[in-house]
Amino acid sequence: MSDDYGSKNGNGGELHQQANTEANTLTTQQGTPIADDQNSLRAGPRGATLMEDQILREKLFHFDHERIPERVVHARGFGAHGYFENYDSLSDLTCADLFQRKGEKTPAFVRFSTVAGNKGSGDLARDVRGFAVKLYTQEGNWDIVGNNIPVFFIQDAIKFPDLIHSAKQEPDRGFPQAQTAHDNFWDFVTLTPESVHMLMWTMSDRAIPRSFRFMEGFGVHTFRMVDASGKSTFVKFHWKPKGGLQSVVWDEALTINGADPDFHRRDLWDAICSGQYPEWELGLQVFDETFAEEFEFDVLDPTKIIPEEQVPVRPVGRLVLDRVVDNFFAETEQVAFCTQNIVPGIDFTDDPLLQGRNFSYLDTQLKRLGGPNFTHIPVNAPKCPMHHFQQDGHMAMKNPTGRANYEPNSWGKEEGGPRENPDKGFTSYPSQVSGDKQRVRSETFSDHYSQARQFYISQTEEEQTHIADAFIFELSKVETIAIRERMVSHLLNVDTALAQSVAQGLGIDPLPKAAEPAVNPRDDLPASDALSILKNGPKNFKGRKLGILLTDGADGDLLSSIESVLKQEGAVAETVAPHSGEIKDDKGRAVAVTHKVDGGPSVLFDAVVVVPSKEGVKTLSALPPAQNFVRDAFHHKKFIGFSSEGQTLLHESGIAYSQDQGCTPLKDEASVKAFIQQCAELRYWARP
Ligand code: HDE
User: Fold this and answer.
1) CA–CA separation, 195 vs 303, rounded Å?
2) DSSP 8-state class, residue 590
3) What is the mean pLDDT of residues 307-332?
4) Catalytic machinery residues
5) pLDDT > 70: percent of the chain
6) Residue of the nearest CA to atom 44 in ligand 1?
7) Tens digits of per-residue pLDDT, 194-205?
């Protein structure tokens, strides 16, 4: 590691650097060259270590302080750099600088995360995903700190610590980790009916995305856009993945967490490193005060959506992630998102959750990053000019020069430093504020079930089954029967069939009485296709991964066809074989093996093909992991392609492939092409 702070401050560091980098010599933090980094200083070869060893002490001191507190929520995350490209001028809506010019690119840093798990937890937990975007605009950093689900569990910030305490590991035993399948969570949410809508989302496949690349992002709250004349419009932010939506199924999630707990971070890293830059479109739902007043629900209530059928999403630009981090700690761990980081042209609303967040994020950065100068860390520093009189504090890296550190001052234009700018500067939208000071929840926030029902009826049958299964799984881990019953009593206000199937799965008989609603739920809200994942899947196999199970002597022509079709499609493949290293195909060509079969289960892939040799298939058929590879793929409704030799493995594994339209024989390039086209559907849902 080289340290160039000295040279930046112009205090003579350049000279030292020269001396040390010339020889590439290992040094202490103070720059002293180190002669021996293998042995500490001892009194004789077998004697005690000497306190005098300043090199040992410095090294251990630094090591002992490597950790900073992990985020209290969203601890597990992964970030990448990219840019936002504006499609067209939005000056009719906002004076925000980044939206003024067509084609303008604004640098961005994005961090995806789970919420409940600790930093080292698995990526495939059933959980909300954070989708936090920092836009380094020319008029300051704008953070859209959103999630992959457009609503939240609670309506008021004062309940956030309770929600998170209940979701995280229980305080006496310290488990379970990274999951909500336990009594405390379900106790809290069933006593908090405003959570019911969000629970429908977290029990859906939205909470087990296949990849960060294939999930939506939402700003959740209603924000304002303000134009140059001061006119304000309400707006909700949406990030729509160009590659379409995709989730795994629960059984896959369980296995992936063991086979590759870093599945999501590896996926993002691999995609960017191979030049397949993930992309999202930023969409706006724009509406005015009149719509807000007429809408069935309160637009300040973060447990509600505005259906896209009512207010269409207008695409305004694209977000592209094209650069991985150089250093995980420096960037992903130290990045500090703050909801209150907005820019001229963007403003808050009175959403009570957003108001609480605006206090909380700055506060948390002080705790995590240890001082008020976290904007000096490169990933947090604005990329536009900055001039202010804030000074000193821990780790101050960018220190003002000159005499003036206050204003007003009379030191003249040059020496006196920056001045406020009423024309360009941020001005809050002058919304009317009045009311009695009181602790109260607006009655317009009290319908907790109608949109939960709307979400449910918008799902395909398959997705509805997954929701019921997820409720059953989670509640089956809840030991207190009364809590399970309480959840069913809420579901009775959402959809009777859903409540019945959950009750049946839990062995609850008779059904409890429906929970007493604050206001009667409506059953006239129409289904919205935008709420289903399966109705918004990809149109091709681009960016997806094929698993190729093969052996020595595999059909080289078929392998070449697979390779070329995947390349045309923009998809990738990994190979799985009985041994590591490489295999030789029947043309003698060496093919690198990505996974030995017991370390490469089919859950890691979007579709699979089986291409062994005649001899090789005997080996595979005798290997339980190879049998599981195809059995799991079949059970998870994946598309399976197979050569004539590969068919034997399907047969030996007891798979009913012959009548199954999702199992396709591969002979030549044309059949491979047809197979990959079929794979765009991602799963053969018709499989019983
Ligand atoms: Fe957060 N949230 N949050 N949150 N949140 C944090 O900030 C908080 C909420 C979200 O990748 C913390 O830097 C309160 C909603 C994301 O670094 C903390 C409330 C939404 C991230 C915090 C909420 C989010 C955070 C923890 C209720 C979706 C990760 C560490 C009033 C719209 C950002 C940190 C990253 C992180 C507080 C509710 C999204 C403690 C008090 C709603 C994506 O400040």
Assistant:
1) 8
2) E
3) 98
4) 74, 147
5) 97
6) 361
7) 999 999 999 999
